[in-house]
């Protein structure tokens, strides 16, 4: 059974802007129950937009099929779907003077005590922390406890492990892998940190400029394989190919990135005369 099913999905951030570049272009993706898929792609490839759509946070065109557990994610939202993204830590509410234990109880932690307590140990969270006094990494740990303590069927992760130290991240990934193996939970995870991930995914999906580069590929790590066969090395290869692909498009007229050979003066006196807005 494919828990994740997307077909014919194209998406513009600014639907009113004629001629705007689409964020997603004709995406099709199917992932089986219990899979753990890593989304690989450069910044701006569309990974976050895709996860937000899967989470039902953005309305898609009626012609597109975006289903989780056989249901339309926006118009017939399925239960058991958890989305964790980076914007949570910027919310003023979670930066207020509130004790972590009170905060978790306010979102139902007392109803999932066993899972909550296990996650508190895995993520090394102090229940007496005050949310406004802790670091971004510690605040991220609280977010993960909050988001994972209620059992989920589909987990959508958007860069939420970036603030974690390597030990906590390793323990968290082991927990998520166990959830997938024992409960058949499905995970889609966008990240730019590939160290320590070799044994985690079952599938890899490559995104480039809002499109999928082929179908997801199955991933089976080989502990005896050389470094050249690692997930990190494969991701590096894909990203290098993406950059070369973009540079070929730039030669054909696509807007270029990087330094420009313009007429900006390097002499300070000439520069300040040019940008003297007082006259």
From TrEMBL:
Keyword Magnesium: no
PROSITE patterns linked: ABC_TRANSPORTER_2 (PS50893)
All residue ranges annotated as the ABC transporter domain in the record: 4-234
Molecular function as annotated in GO: ATP binding; ATP hydrolysis activity
SMART domains listed in its UniProt record: AAA
Keywords, alphabetical: ATP-binding, Hydrolase, Nucleotide-binding
Pfam families: ABC_tran (PF00005)
Keyword DNA damage annotated: no
Record-linked PANTHER family: SKFA PEPTIDE EXPORT ATP-BINDING PROTEIN SKFE
Protein name per its UniProtKB record: P-loop containing nucleoside triphosphate hydrolase protein
């Amino acid at each position: 059974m494919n828990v994740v099913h997307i077909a014919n999905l194209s998406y513009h951030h600014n639907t009113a802007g004629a001629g705007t570049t689409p964020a997603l272009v004709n995406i099709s993706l199917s992932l089986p129950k219990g899979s753990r898929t890593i989304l690989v792609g450069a910044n701006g490839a569309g990974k976050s937009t895709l996860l937000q759509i899967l989470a039902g946070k953005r309305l898609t065109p009626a012609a597109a099929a975006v289903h989780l557990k056989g249901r339309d994610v926006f118009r017939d939202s399925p239960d058991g779907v958890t989305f964790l993204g980076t914007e949570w830590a910027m919310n003023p509410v979670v930066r207020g003077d509130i004790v972590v234990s009170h905060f978790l109880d306010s979102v139902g932690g007392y109803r999932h005590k066993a899972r909550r307590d296990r996650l508190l140990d895995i993520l090394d969270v102090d229940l007496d922390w005050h949310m406004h006094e802790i670091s971004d990494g510690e605040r991220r740990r609280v977010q993960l406890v909050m988001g994972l303590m209620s059992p989920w069927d589909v987990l959508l992760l958007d860069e939420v492990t970036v603030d974690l130290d390597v030990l906590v991240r390793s323990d968290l990934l082991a927990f998520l892998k166990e959830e997938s193996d024992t409960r058949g939970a499905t995970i889609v995870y966008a990240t730019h940190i590939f160290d320590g991930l070799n044994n985690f995914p079952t599938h890899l999906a490559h995104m480039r400029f809002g499109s999928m580069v082929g179908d997801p590929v199955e991933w089976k790590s080989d502990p005896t394989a050389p470094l050249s066969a690692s997930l990190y090395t494969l991701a590096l290869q894909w990203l290098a190919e993406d950059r070369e692909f973009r540079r070929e498009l730039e030669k054909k007229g696509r807007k270029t990135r990087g330094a420009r050979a313009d007429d900006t003066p390097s002499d300070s006196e000439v520069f300040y005369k040019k940008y003297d807005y007082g006259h």
